[in-house]
Amino acid sequence: MASPRSASDDPRSGNRPTQIDWRAVGLRRTPQREIVLGLVQSTRDHPTADWIHHEARRILPDISLATVYRTLRILKEKGLIHEFSGGASPSRYDGVRGDHEHVRCVRCGMVEDVAIPEVGDVRERVAERTGFRMSSFPLLFHGLCGRCFRELEERGERSPQGVAPGGQRI
Ligand SMILES: [Zn+2]
Ligand SMILES: [Zn+2]
């Protein structure tokens, strides 16, 4: 699995960490929370906890992976970040605001953003038909990323039914 690039040298990171009013979200402001949230928001690569831990240690050398996981859980509970958990590969985290959907590779776990404005219509229809008020929680599509698709094709492992390893249909 390709690990996400460092936030500082990622050309796509124009995504400035949002200033959080910690008291308004009901959390005490701590360096750990600020750094972990800032790292998740600094990249569009949907990083793993390991990557966040690696980057956080540059700033807070003593921060443990357990603290990173606990902090991610707290930030998620407060709705500041999203977690994409899935199968055999580690969870990915997203701190990017604004409506966007996601596609996740069933093989390597990579998560990418995808803008589908039409999804707004789908949410409205769901609301009309059910009386539910839709939250903005993003949809998650599954498939094989281009790199995994090519790798499987080269090895001749891709079955004609379009089933990825692990039995998931693609
Ligand atoms: Zn992949
Ligand atoms: Zn995203």
Largest sheet: 3 strands, mixed
The run of helices and strands is: HHHEEEEHEH
Structural class assignment: alpha+beta
**Beta-strand residue fraction:** 5-15%
- The portion of residues assigned to helices is 25-40%
List of distinct ligands in this structure: zinc ion
Major sheet: order of its strands?
4-3-5
**Strand segment count:** 5
For the record, the CATH class of the largest domain is: Mainly Alpha
- Fold-level CATH name of the largest domain: Arc Repressor Mutant, subunit A
Shape: flat
Q: Cα-atom Rg, whole angstroms?
A: 18 Å
Please, how many helices?
A: 5
Report the end-to-end length measured between terminal Cα atoms: 19 Å
Residue windows where pLDDT falls under 50 for at least 5 positions: 5-14
Would you identify the CATH architecture of the largest domain?
Answer: Orthogonal Bundle
Give the CATH H-level superfamily of the largest domain: Winged helix-like DNA-binding domain superfamily/Winged helix DNA-binding domain
Global mean pLDDT: 83
Count the domains: 2
